[in-house]
């Protein structure tokens, strides 16, 4: 029983559970936004649901509805999550130039010592 408790209380599992809960809540927000966008598209095109659209008798309307929903979802996820994450990551990242300079200086010292020259 102790092993199971240790497994459950590991940080990764707790973080994953929190991520799933937040993703479920965020999905509801995105669904509401998609509904708004589909209604706006419906005002422009006449109907917010393209499922009745059948050019030449081919039922492509359901596909178009899902495609528009996917594109709106991708747009929201990119601009609400990916872009801010990348900006925060870049803002708090260590500058790589300092490491490269230090590493190259140490390599130079090593090479001089191997060559038998005194500094």
TrEMBL record:
SUPFAM superfamilies: Gated mechanosensitive channel. Keywords: Cell membrane, Ion channel, Ion transport, Membrane, Transmembrane, Transmembrane helix, Transport. Gene3D superfamilies: Large-conductance mechanosensitive channel, MscL, domain 1. InterPro entries: MS_channel, MSC/AndL, MscL_channel. It is found in: Membrane. One of its GO terms (molecular function) is mechanosensitive monoatomic ion channel activity. Its main location: membrane. It is a multi-pass membrane protein. Pfam families: MscL (PF01741). GO terms for cellular component: membrane. This is Mechanosensitive ion channel protein MscL. It comes from Dermacoccus nishinomiyaensis.
